[in-house]
Amino acid sequence: MPRFSAGEREIIRQRLMREGERLFAAFGVKKVTVDEIVRATGIAKGTFYTFYPSKEHLYLDIAGNLQLQMWRDMDAFLKEHRALPPRALCKGCFLWMFDELQRYPMLRQADGETADYLYRKLPPEAIEAHTQDDRRELARLEEFGIRFACGPEIATKALQTLAVAFLNLQQEGADSRQAVMEIILDGVLKELIVDEDH
């Protein structure tokens, strides 16, 4: 098994993240092979497997980092709009996030088929770790007065499902997509977010 210094490990990890994101954005997780990833990064196949057990694990790691970056960018939106009632603020956040997807080609090309593929290929603990990351970020919304009626676990899973559904709408025209997203968000958030008056 190859041994790398901490600096070498970080350089290789960054290359895997960068080239993996580029390849997954261009071709999707199903079509990209580990051979293509190692060729693009200039590392041996064995080296790849010292970092990730599969290309799907790499994909999930990249997606998690991109989502984390998006959540961090959303802080400015939250601070600017914190005077909105909680449900309107949450709705604005999710509409903002879907607009932001244009900056993240790998996330933008994901859809329900991608999610199904990852659920089949990845062990449940990998999916659960990703869900925990989403749950932790969603809990930060409480700092802005957004309280979930059903608890953070159910809210996280509901909003993850909603996100996949919205990704499937990307083929629609912008006006139609926006209208559908707003109708669905209004209904879901009415059930998820504690009413401002209570």
UniProtKB/TrEMBL annotation:
<dbReference type="GO" id="GO:0000976">
    <property type="term" value="F:transcription cis-regulatory region binding"/>
</dbReference>
<dbReference type="InterPro" id="IPR050109">
    <property type="entry name" value="HTH-type_TetR-like_transc_reg"/>
</dbReference>
<dbReference type="InterPro" id="IPR001647">
    <property type="entry name" value="HTH_TetR"/>
</dbReference>
<feature type="domain" description="HTH tetR-type">
    <location>
        <begin position="10"/>
        <end position="70"/>
    </location>
</feature>
<protein>
    <submittedName>
        <fullName>TetR family transcriptional regulator</fullName>
    </submittedName>
</protein>
<keyword id="KW-0805">Transcription regulation</keyword>
<dbReference type="Pfam" id="PF00440">
    <property type="entry name" value="TetR_N"/>
</dbReference>
<keyword id="KW-0238">DNA-binding</keyword>
<keyword id="KW-0804">Transcription</keyword>
<dbReference type="InterPro" id="IPR009057">
    <property type="entry name" value="Homeodomain-like_sf"/>
</dbReference>
<dbReference type="GO" id="GO:0003700">
    <property type="term" value="F:DNA-binding transcription factor activity"/>
</dbReference>
<feature type="DNA-binding region" description="H-T-H motif">
    <location>
        <begin position="33"/>
        <end position="52"/>
    </location>
</feature>
